[in-house]
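Notes from the pairing session

We agreed to fold both candidates in a single pass and log them together. This is the raw record for the first candidate, unedited. Please don't reformat it; downstream parsing expects exactly this layout.

Candidate A
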Amino acid sequence: MDFETLKYEKADEGYVVITLNRPERLNAFSRKLNEEMGLAIHEALQDDDVKCLIITGSPRPDGRPCFSAGGDLKDDTLGIPRWDYPDHIGPLQRKEDQLFQANTPAGRLWFKRPRLIAPKYTNLLWSPKVVIAAVDGVATAGGLELALACDIIIASETAQFTDSHVKNLKIAIGKGSVTTGLARRVGYNKALELCLLGEFIDGNEAYRIGLANRVTAPDKLMDEARAMATKIAGMRQEAVQVTKLACRTAEDTNLNDSWTYADELLECMKADPGYQGLQSVTSEWAGRAR
């Protein structure tokens, strides 16, 4: 599949790299990029060879790194509806409902996603495939929301995270609900500070407050992301899916309900005819010991 506003690179190791590619507009989301982002995510989800996704951004024309500056306000001033395109809530979304069987760990994850006005965010949140954001340069507004929708954020030391909705746009929340993503990652107090003041924090600070999972030197960012994606892609995918489902569900429930649900998921895995479980692992260890 060919794209105009992003790059789609499928790796032999079982992952895909989706690169936002509007460097002249700081990888801002136009109508076309919104549409193609949805199509790229759909392509990755329906491809059984793809086990993990990496999302990153192309550098600016002068070479400086950039993740995404959020929505393209130029489109707004021209009256172009960024979220209005044929497959947005139409045929594509109906197809997406049938991507994964409901009685599988992948299906349980997928069917938890709400059908909202900005499905690219929720499709990543509840994707059965782990999504890694590799962030360098500016990640603000919709760009920050995109990173927050990913399961893991790897930040360069030179990354610049901020939210500009209140400071610059005079509105509180974007289509990707930055308040929800930030509060869950860094807590209410820090999320409120970041949303209200709109001050930049770099990759080291993002890691310190828990916004980023890891921080790395700029020239090592994609190496780190690719190495992690390769490792995740090589794991038993049902185990990956159940783990993500249990962790996502834990955010929405109390301690007892979360624990009970995790036990239920474990029993579902054990009931799978193809599950070999601890016996295969202990047998392998016993073989090594000999």
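Candidate B (folded immediately after A)
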Amino acid sequence: MTAATFAAELDAATTVLEAAGLSSARVDAEWLLAGLLGVGRVSVRMDLAETVPAPIAERYAHAVSRRARREPLQRILGWEEFRGVRVRLTDAVLVPRPETETLVEWALALLPPPGARRLLAIDLGTGSGCIACALASERPDLDVIAVDVSPAAAAVARDNTRALGLASRVGVVAADLLDGIRDLGADLIVSNPPYLPSALVPELPPEVRIHEPRLALDGGADGLALIRRIATTARRYLRPSGALAVETAGGDQTEAAAALLRAAGWDRVAVRADLVGIDRFVAGRA
């Protein structure tokens, strides 16, 4: 059998992914091939007439098959870029979303300016550690405690801190939110917690419903179970005027989360929109 060219492999993969109902079929086909070759997505378009080595073609067919079964692209690649850091992913952690970069941007703005002392942040529900690592990479004067209830997720976050050279400033703890965490007088608590109502989880796209850990999605009956706990417990772990910033499902839930913070005594509660203009983030001061 004559070996196929890169062009032919990409076309065949695109056809398979289109048949699976993926609107991003061509882009996904290119990313999967780029990942196998260890190059950027644009680079796979440069030598389309070249022949694909048999081992690469075999691995590519397997990767395309996984994507056709609606496994997330990032999980097949094994990584995702998040605010300039690349984090490794496994099935124990949520794939980082672009909108969460806005949460990090706001959290950074809520920190005190650089000064004589080191600052401390706590990242609740760290998952892959993407938020904790992004914060630490952008503020060299910041130490971070990254917390996740899942030991498997905590292990992934710990591996990412090491791979990024941040392990000396980002400590990872397996714990249920702030349970067992000492009152350390943090400057910031940030969280992208599970916030989807339980009844909504079975209706999610296959990439999320089947392949994301339910523990990272399900926020209880109203989606606010974890946010409610954070609102009522987090203040005592912060310095005076320390900040809390939380991601929500958006819309009405954002206003409900803001009301929870106000009821729990948080000061200067504010809401911020995501990349498409939907109110999604809530912050307050201790």
